[in-house]
Amino acid sequence: MQLCFVYTSNPLDDRDRIDAVLAAIPIECRRQQIADLSPKIDINDSGELTIEIEVDLNSASSIAEPVRIATAAVEVFVELATQFELAWNVGHQHEPCIGTISAAAGVHDLMDEVKIAVDVARSLADFSIDEEENAFVRPETSVTETGADDQASWDELFQPPDTFIRFPEFDEE
Fold first, then answer.
1. Is the pLDDT score of 24 beyond 90?
2. Based on CB atoms within 10 Å of each CB, which residue in 10, 40, 113, 119 is the most buried?
3. Cα dihedral: 138, 139, 142, 146 (round 10)
4. What's the pTM value of the predicted model, to 2 decimals?
5. Which tens digit of pLDDT belongs to each residue from 87-123?
6. Buried/exposed code over 48-59 (b: 16+ C-beta within 10 A; e: otherwise)
């Protein structure tokens, strides 16, 4: 699972401020004891700046590690939001926006959302591809073995029934 933190500015903020934000990211990561985060920076034609930072939780070594990394990452962005008065949108690959981190907003609900997302992702990750193959009921015979390989059998599937079932109790008298 990957958490994604996105800051968007339109028009482009003060360049020195953005440089200060980018310089503060590794410092905050070290303080929270997580690996340095590499930002993806994009400035589109209309002058909108987007800073996107992904936190990979898949490489965690222990079971409790993804939750610790996720909550520490939220703390990094809480500090950045407070220090530089920014708002960061938080999401993951299945839900692009689970909340926003800003200087004025509390993050207790967001922390709960992040922990739940990590727990759900961990639960779903327990299913391996081999288990998926065995999880679904398979027919004992294939379609070609049942005689449905000729055109007449296939055409029969798309024909309406010759007669309709009658329900006398619904007939009008």
1. yes
2. 113
3. -170
4. 0.65
5. 899 998 878 888 888 877 778 888 888 888 888 877 7
6. ebebebbbebee
Instruction: List phi, psi (to 5°) of 120.
Output: -65, -45
pLDDT digits (tens, 9 = 90+) for 25-42: 999 999 998 888 889 988
Q: How many residues does the chain have?
A: 173
CA angle 161, 163, 167 (to 5 degrees): 120
State the Cα–Cα distance between residues 7 and 26, nearest whole angstrom. Answer: 16
CB 36 within 8 A of CB 79: no
The interaxial angle of helices 65-84 and 108-125, nearest 10 deg, is 150
Neighbours of 8 (CB within 10 A): 14
**Cβ contact 41:54 at 8 Å:** no
First to last CA, the chain: 64
The H or E element that residue 72 is part of is helix 65-84
Tokens read off for 10: 């339109």
State residue 40's pLDDT score.
Answer: 92
Q: Residue 52 has which token pair?
A: 């996107």
CA angle at residue 102 from 98 to 106, to 5 degrees? 75
